[in-house]
Amino acid sequence: MLNDLQYRTTLLADSFKESIRPSYLNNATSALQAVLDKFSNRERLLGLAVYGNQGDVFAVSAGLPSDLTLDPSIPERAMDSDSVEEDFLTTKNSGKVYILATPLHQEGKVMGALVVFQRANYIGDAINQIWRTNLLSLLIQAILFSIAIVLILRWIIFRPVLRLIEVIHQARAGHDIYDSNAVKSHGFFHPIAVEISKMSKNLIQARAAASEEARLRLDKVDSPWTEERLKEFMKGHLKERKIFVVSNREPYVHSKIKNEIQYAVPASGMITALDPIMRACGGLWIAHGSGNADKLVVDKNAKLMVPPDEPKYTLKRIWLAG
Questions:
Q1: Domain end point (choices 103, 119, 135)
Q2: What is the pLDDT of residues 83-95, one digit of tens each?
Q3: 3-state class of 234 per DSSP?
Q4: How does pLDDT run across 152-206, given as a tens digit for each residue?
Q5: Are residues 112 and 137 in the same domain?
Q6: Is residue 289 part of a domain?
Q7: Has residue 52 been placed in a domain?
Q8: Rounded distance, CA 288 to CA 229, Å?
Q9: Can you tell me the distance from the alpha carbon of 104 to that of 50, in angstroms, rounded to the nearest whole number?
């Protein structure tokens, strides 16, 4: 845009010189003034001015702001160097103005200078508009890219990781997940899920072997009590009937601390004695819900699986009026 402004101003100056030079050289002030007024204040053209060879203002087109002609340095440089000089000037009334000065000659000598004043505010306005458009475009692109990244993370990484965690929970709970649909739909996590399913199958086999060994040791008084032996003992005596524990104090209490729900195991001999049995054999523990976040973690039947890190049995909370 600057190049275009300079080019058009140079063409204007060259064409004006042919009309102005005879009147200036003949000192025909009225004719010169008429020519200058004819081209004053047209579109982006603010006006014209003619300077004498001493840097004094000889004639100025009508309507040209007086503050533009106060500094004769540009036409003086043009006359001294006998070449076209240009510069930008910012004034309070006219804003940004492009000034081009070209010397006037007579018989090869510099006799004065013609100065063309062009409005240049439109360049700044155009640049600001470009910035606004580009920033808006960048903002929209950033939003679209952010949405795309969130969707990619959610569908390609986050959801498969959640499914993988579910597979691990199933494996820890002793379920055979080798043919699970969760394993088959893991995308690039599929190899990990397959390995976990194989480990799960091995764990199930190991647990079955441990259970059989514990069952065979039930009649041996001197054999140590293990989780598997206790489970087989309860199966043999309860005949697959469910275990119920009813107590006032619950084995796990949930509390809200700084907007985060945490759980704790109360200090109780009964809990210390019965919690390992419930973990080994499963069942239902019914107790009073005393934690300030107990209601936030249970289902519609006031139940949840505990321990929270490795669920083994069900805790049902009863709400008692204080």
A1: 119
A2: 989 888 887 777 8
A3: helix
A4: 888 777 777 777 777 677 666 666 655 555 555 556 666 776 777 777 777 766 7
A5: no
A6: yes
A7: yes
A8: 31
A9: 9
Please indicate, yes or no, if residue 227 is contained in any of the structural domains: no
Host H or E run for residue 192 = helix 190-216
**172/276 same-domain check:** no
Last residue of a domain, one of 75, 104, 119: 119
Lowest mean pLDDT among 117-126, 235-244, 291-300: 235-244
* Alpha carbon distance 190, 167 (integer Å): 11
Question: Would you say residue 225 lies in a domain?
Answer: no
**Is residue 167 classed exposed, middle or buried when 0-12, 13-18 and 19+ CB atoms within 10 A define those classes?**
buried
> For residue 305, what are the β-bridge partners?
314
Those residues whose C-beta lies under 8 Å from the C-beta of residue 307, and which sit 6 or more positions away, are: 252, 279
Instruction: State which residues form the domain around 100.
Output: 2-119
Supply the pTM of this predicted model: 0.43
Question: Which of the listed ranges 13-17, 209-213, 252-256 does the model predict with the highest average pLDDT?
Answer: 252-256
Pairwise CA distance, residues 168 & 162, whole Å = 10
For 215, phi and psi rounded to 5 degrees? -65, -40
Please give the Cα distance from 245 to 238 (Å, whole number): 14
pLDDT of residue 157: 77
pLDDT for residue 211: 64
Stronger pLDDT, 10 or 181, i.e. the higher one: 10
Count up the domains in the chain and report the number.
Answer: 3
Instruction: Mark whether 130 and 114 lie in a shared domain.
Output: no
Which carries the bigger pLDDT value, residue 64 or residue 307?
307
CA angle 82, 88, 89 (to 5 degrees): 115
